[in-house]
From TrEMBL:
InterPro entries: AAA+_ATPase (IPR003593), ABC_heterocyst_DevA (IPR014324), ABC_transporter-like_ATP-bd (IPR003439), ABC_transporter-like_CS (IPR017871), ABC_transpr_LolD-like (IPR015854), MacB-like_ATP-bd (IPR017911), P-loop_NTPase (IPR027417). It comes from Neoroseomonas lacus. Residues 4-227 form the ABC transporter domain. This is ABC transporter. CDD domains: ABC_MJ0796_LolCDE_FtsE (cd03255). One of its GO terms (molecular function) is ATP hydrolysis activity. Keywords: ATP-binding, Nucleotide-binding, Transport. GO terms for cellular component: plasma membrane.
């Protein structure tokens, strides 16, 4: 079973005269271990597609199968359960400012009610070392650079062993060098674990990390090309 299998998906915002279709007949498959980038102009529907696949928004029409679950008609409880199996990475990192890097990463392990606190902290520390942040575990986000904060986000997204990583413009706020480093790190970490990635990006500098690039235009997935 492919981790993502989207078939003839349509999506609209608003009602009546304000109704606006933003996804039209989108089909997309992401296979096990694949890194797929989603590109396209602003407003073409990339983030909407990512939030539907991430079970952050209800599916209206078509089929959206993620990690073996069909999301059309899924109850909120099922969507919550699915979200726990997905690692999310966002442009602005979404780390909690009053927690240390270690605590931010360890939070992603709270979904396991029987894991002792000490083990959560130890696993978070090991994951931070794996993303090159050994020695920075006790810093809060304000005391890390933008690239380091995104490394913490990567550690947080991967620490619980998700079946899938969804990333929305993870390098947009970074300069060229740290953006490239973060993109390659994410690819390498996911590849070594066999975790598929679907990443929305405007950043032409990181297209090289993709196994496949899907372009969106006006709500349609118009092309699938090798980078
Ligand atoms: N919650 C919402 N309510 C109404 N319209 C929305 C909502 N979210 C997005 N839209 C509209 O849907 C269209 C697609 O938005 P979406 O964010 O999916 O595009 P995008 O390709 O990710 O754009 P960007 O690259 O600028 O983030 C846009 O025209 C946007 O204004």
């Amino acid at each position: 079973m492919d981790p993502i299998h989207v078939g003839r998906l349509n999506h609209a915002y608003g009602d009546g005269e304000l109704r606006r279709t933003v996804l039209r007949d989108v089909s997309l498959t992401v296979q096990a271990g694949e890194v797929v980038l989603l590109t396209g102009p602003s407003g073409s529907g990339k983030t909407t597609l990512l939030t539907l696949i991430g079970a952050l928004r209800g599916v209206q029409d078509g089929s959206c199968q993620v990690l073996g679950r069909e999301l059309i008609g899924a109850a909120e409880g099922e969507r919550v359960a699915l979200r726990r199996r997905i690692g999310f990475i966002f442009q602005n990192h979404n780390l909690l400012g009053f927690l240390t890097a270690r605590q931010n990463v360890a939070m992603a392990l709270e979904i396991d009610p029987v894991m002792p606190e000490g083990e959560r902290m130890a696993r978070a520390g090991a994951m931070l070392a794996a993303v090159g942040l050994a020695g920075h575990e006790e810093r809060t986000p304000a005391h890390l650079s933008g690239g380091q904060r995104q490394r913490v986000s990567i550690a947080r997204a991967l620490v619980a062993g998700p079946g899938l990583v969804l990333a929305d413009e993870p390098t947009a706020a970074l300069d060229r060098v740290s953006g490239g480093e973060v993109a390659h790190l994410l690819r390498d970490m996911a590849k070594s674990r066999g975790t598929p990635i679907l990443m929305v990006t405007h950043d032409p500098r990181i297209l090289g990390i993709a196994d496949r690039v899907v372009a969106m235009e006006d709500g349609r997935a118009v092309a699938a090309a090798a980078p």
